[in-house]
Amino acid sequence: MEQFRHTKEHPSTSTQVITFDIVALEELYGILRLQSCREDYFYTEIRGFYNIPDEKELVVNIRVKNPNQNPDFAWDRRVKYLYRYMLDLEKFMWNLSTLGGAYSAMGDFDKNYAKIAAKITAQQISLAKKYGDPNILARCLLYTALAEGQMGRLTQAVLIVRAVKHWAKQNRNSEIVERCCEGVYQKLRAIRLFGK
Question: What total number of domains does the chain contain?
Answer without folding.
Answer: 2
